[in-house]
Amino acid sequence: MSNITIKEIAKALGLSVSSISKALNDSYEISDETKKRVVEYAKLNNYRPNRLAKSLKGGQSNTIGIVVCSINNIFVSQILDGIQKASYETDYDIVIMQSNEDVNREKESIEALLKKGVDGILLAPVSENSNTEYLADVNENICPIVLFDRFNLSLKTTKIGVNESKGIMQALQHLIRIDRKKILFITGDQFGEENSRINSYKKALKTLDIPFNPKFMLSCNLGNNDLIDQQISESIKNLMKSSIKPNAIFGATDVITIRTLGILAQMKIKVPDEIAVIGFSNFDMPNSLNPSLSTIRQPTQEIGFLALKKLINLLATQQHKRRALHETILLDTSIELRKSTNL
Amino acid sequence: MSNITIKEIAKALGLSVSSISKALNDSYEISDETKKRVVEYAKLNNYRPNRLAKSLKGGQSNTIGIVVCSINNIFVSQILDGIQKASYETDYDIVIMQSNEDVNREKESIEALLKKGVDGILLAPVSENSNTEYLADVNENICPIVLFDRFNLSLKTTKIGVNESKGIMQALQHLIRIDRKKILFITGDQFGEENSRINSYKKALKTLDIPFNPKFMLSCNLGNNDLIDQQISESIKNLMKSSIKPNAIFGATDVITIRTLGILAQMKIKVPDEIAVIGFSNFDMPNSLNPSLSTIRQPTQEIGFLALKKLINLLATQQHKRRALHETILLDTSIELRKSTNL
DNA sequence: TTGTATGCGTTATCAC
DNA sequence: GTGATAACGCATACAA
To answer: What range(s) does the HTH cro/C1-type domain occupy (chains A, B) (predicted)?
Structure first.
């Protein structure tokens, strides 16, 4: 309701508005004495500069918008944490939006951010080609966008992610080492049949001379957890009855990999004896899982941290020079071996 | 960089700024024809109303600020999800800040929000009496604050949380039922020795005629996971060597309870045979844990949802009438039994 | 060293 | 049915 303004300070102190403004901004034009008087009065009365007004005037809001699929996701929330950490070192603050894996909502989220006047956007796209022209337009004409996690390949901008091929290779090589080549690969279906993780997987198989069997790949709908469970358990049940039983499972995401453990436990399938399990996961309590989970870990904090830093960099650069700064950074994953692949 | 304004539309269409504004706001003063012309032009040119300006003019930002300890926390992120869901049904959007369990940062976060001109604040306080006078001042004079999860008891406002006593009672009664009365209670130390969860626990013990043994209570520093592990495992190790071995563990938070499972697994202590485990937890994949975890589940989504709704309600009410709306809502927890307490 | 005037994008009041 | 103008809070170019 209240919140004192510069104008009121001016009236109270018998000075002009502009003098107050200058005093508060420590301008050389104002005498030390006046400054002191103003600053003291301001502090005493809890003066809070109105950022809306400042932004409106200055043409920049010092706010970064972020769009992720869902806050409520281990992987995402770790990245957000990294972004927040990076933001502490800057003057920028953060507004988070959720796309809920929905292309339209992704666009709505960005629109909301633009109306708020964000200076730049950090986006983990819903899919590899969602809103392509729209994003390009925004990135060119409104404010810079930096992509992280998933890539919208055609968008010309800075991208931060992980080296999937390498991560997948790490996992597969380990499975080969423990002689588990009949691998069921479980992934999400958001990205169509030809997403980069699937492609990397196939390529890795080829490199390692493991034939790709379509029956050993399951794409499930990540939008609904019950559905995930259902799809996975059904698939496993069928495969275990078939002549070519899998002896390993490789999960493409956190949720998939961890849920798979639960399903196997309920089906009383022994891990790793009957089926070894490994997958991308950033759950920070892997030892509490049944059994402790071998994972391909992604440097989430670093992804978030870097993404913000790079965006800030772009913002500090004149628009026409930004293109030169565009880069794609693929961070290395690390493999952590635990009981789920330990014979 | 660009982003067309009302002024530019006016110039392009040979109309006045005010007419454009009215047309865009569907005012009855403007002819349908003109409206159509304006709206079409606006859409065509991706006109985005500048919310900063609107807020500055209107004196309200339609933004709600949220302060939580950490986004990167299962419990918190579920609540945030609930808040976001609730916000979809309103015109408000959300800005999230992290206090990182730090009283000063909590205050800084709120200051940042106030500078941004938020209309109201949703706060999960760092502790039961952090920033009391400050919060009271803000709540009285600047914008309403609604508390959730943890309570700052002295602040007169709406509070949304869970019925801890009842939840703890559920857990203890179950432990009694399976004849596990030698219970190690593990909690956080943020709130001092006399926080409400500890008090509720002691009271429940008394009601159930279980003597309270100070040796069977561990308060650990939730700020650092390695430290948590160290404190818990040391404590368990010592107790298992002593004459009065515990046969159950009750964890006060998500992190504590799940980490305890991991520690027990590594110590090769059998759950539930040697030690049963139950605790507050909202991890949504309890079946993947070792063993599947019995939990006291808190209705996180609902907490968030309600908190936002109640705040919106306050905002829709004249300030001097708000006091009448203040209420404290304690939602019921539910107990979910799984193997970790199943003999 | 201080004050005046102007504008950021929008809406509301009042006049035409 | 439309337009001119002031105001929201702040910063800045310019005047004094």
So the answer is: 3-34
Q: Quick one: closest CA in B to A52, which residue? A: B52
Q: Which residue of A has its CA nearest to B301?
A: A72
Q: Is B104 on the interface with A (CB under 8 A)?
A: no
Kindly tell me if the per-residue pLDDT of B207 is higher than 90: yes
In the structure, how far is the CA atom of residue A10 from the C1' atom of nucleotide D14, in angstroms? Answer: 20
Whether A257 and A181 share a structural domain = yes
C-beta atoms of A51 and B116 within 8 A: yes
Residues whose CB is less than 8 angstroms from the CB of residue A55 and which lie 6 or more positions away in sequence, other chains included = A61, A62, A63, A117, B52
pLDDT at B192 over 80: no
Q: Which of B43, B73, B113, B116 to mutate to test the interface with A (most CBs of A within 10 A)?
A: B116
On whether both A85 and A149 belong to a single domain, the answer is yes
Q: Domain for residue B293, yes or no?
A: yes
Cβ atoms B274, B204 nearer than 8 A:
no
* Residue B108 domain flag: yes
The tokens describing B149, both together, are 């999860």
State how many domains chain B has.
Answer: 3
Touching check for A165 and chain B: CB below 8 Å?
no
Structural element, H or E, at residue A254: helix A254-266
**Amino acid letter, A142:** I
In a domain, A315, yes or no: no
pLDDT in tens, A292-323: 999 999 999 999 999 999 999 999 998 889 99
CA atoms within 13 A on the CB side of A300: 20
In a mutagenesis test of the B interface, which of A1, A94, A116, A314 is the best target, namely the one with the most B β-carbons within 10 Å?
A116
Query: Any chain A CB within 8 A of the CB of B318?
Result: no
Query: Does A44 share its domain with A64?
Result: no
**pTM summary value:** 0.91
Q: Which helix (H) or strand (E) holds B64?
A: strand B63-68
Reported as type and span, the H/E element at residue B230 is: helix B225-241
Token pair listed for A293: 């989970």
- Chain center to CA of B236: 30
**Do B182 and B217 sit in the same domain of this protein?**
yes
A76 with A107, same domain? Answer: yes
Q: Which of B77, B112, B262 sits opposite A288 (nearest CB)?
A: B262
Note whether B249 and B152 are same-domain residues: no
Q: Which of residues 185 through 224 in chain B touch A, CB cutoff 8 A?
A: none
- Which residues of chain A does B48 touch, with a Cβ-Cβ cutoff of 8 Å? 111, 114-115
Write the pLDDT tens digit of every residue in B75-89: 999 999 999 999 988
Q: Does some domain include residue B129? A: yes
B261 touches chain A (CB under 8 A): yes
Domain residues for B18? 6-48
DSSP strand pairing (B294-297 vs B334-336): antiparallel
Which residues in chain A have their CB less than 8 angstroms from residue B61's CB? 52
Same domain, B21 and B110: no
Q: Are residues B116 and B241 both part of a single domain?
A: no
